[in-house]
Amino acid sequence: MSPIGIFGGTFDPIHFGHLRTAFELMQVLELEELRFVPAGDPPHRDSPLAAAGLRLAMVRAAIAGQPGFKADDREVRRDGPSYTVTTLAELRAEFPRRPVCLVVGMDAFLGMDRWHQWRDILRLAHVAVAHRPGWRAPTEGTLGQLLSERGTDHVADLRQSEAGSVFVHPVTQLEISSTDLRNIIVSGRDPRYLVPDAVCEIIRETGCYSQQATR
Ligand code: ATP
């Protein structure tokens, strides 16, 4: 059965590094559907600059027209910290038998053992990790051990069971980050070609990054 992909993030703002990574993994994992899930209140970082509803609107604008890409607003609607494990538990209840793949960049994966109830994540979903410029796969520690026990190079493993494997995959390396983008915008430069035009338009119209201090 084709897995459902879940791509969580702050998306403050969404950029081509997210979109290309999501697109390549959707193809490699043969996902029918990849859901972008913007965090309402991301628990492991400073508060986002743009409001959750605006980040969701930018995600919607960025993915419009791409078959299989969907925006899932459950973390924006939910009160309290946006724990990934809660989102995955909700999806598991909706799709009891369907494989679910949580897509993360390598930087996010390296912090996963500090996430809320992180071991339950592997009971609820597979994890597909995209290489990201400047980050290496762990070879030791809890996550190094997890990779050696649960790592697989076979996409078929992600279709044959509902959860529990870790798949690391190289994607086209685009050294774009939302932090750099916010800095570009606040310093009066143009983010064009780093984010979709429709996202540029929302940023320009709302001034959501230009007036505020960078983090
Ligand atoms: P910030 O700079 O604000 O921390 P970010 O660019 O890392 O933001 P997030 O929304 O925090 O973006 O990331 C969501 C997910 O996308 C994470 O799993 C992250 O690892 C991944 N990701 C972000 N940028 C890239 C990129 N350029 N290439 C591959 N993965 C990425």
Properties at a glance:
single chain, 215 residues, alpha/beta, Rossmann fold, 6 strands, 39% helix, globular, binds adenosine-5'-triphosphate
Shape: globular
CATH class membership:
Alpha Beta
Q: Care to count the β-strands?
A: 6
Share of β-strand residues: 5-15%
Number of domains: 1
The end-to-end distance, rounded to whole angstroms, is 42 Å
Question: Could you outline the blueprint of secondary structure elements for this entry?
Answer:
Blueprint lengths: L3 E6 L6 H13 L4 E6 L13 H12 L5 E3 L2 H4 L6 H11 L5 E6 H4 L8 H7 L1 E5 L10 H10 L6 H4 L5 E4 L8 H9 L10 H10 L9
Parallel strand pairs: 1-2, 1-4, 2-3, 4-5, 5-6
Helix pairs in contact: 2-10, 4-6
The site of adenosine-5'-triphosphate has 18 residues, from helix 1, strand 4, helix 5 and helix 9.
Describe the overall structure.
This protein has 215 residues and is α/β, with parallel strands linked by helices. It has a single domain (4-175), classed as Rossmann fold, CATH 3.40.50.620. It is 39% helix and 14% strand. The protein has 10 helices and 6 strands. The chain has helices at 16-28, 52-63, 74-77, 84-94, 106-109, 118-124, 141-150, 157-160, 178-186, 197-206, and strands at 4-9, 33-38, 69-71, 100-105, 126-130, 166-169. Strands 3-2-1-4-5-6 form a 6-stranded parallel beta sheet, sandwiched between helices. Strand 1 (4-9), helix 1 (16-28) and strand 2 form a beta-alpha-beta unit. The radius of gyration is 17 Å and the shape is globular. The protein starts with a strand and ends in a 9-residue tail after the last helix. The mean pLDDT is 94. The chain binds adenosine-5'-triphosphate. Residues 9-12, 17-18, 21, 104-105, 107-108, 130, 132, 174, 176-179 line the site of adenosine-5'-triphosphate.
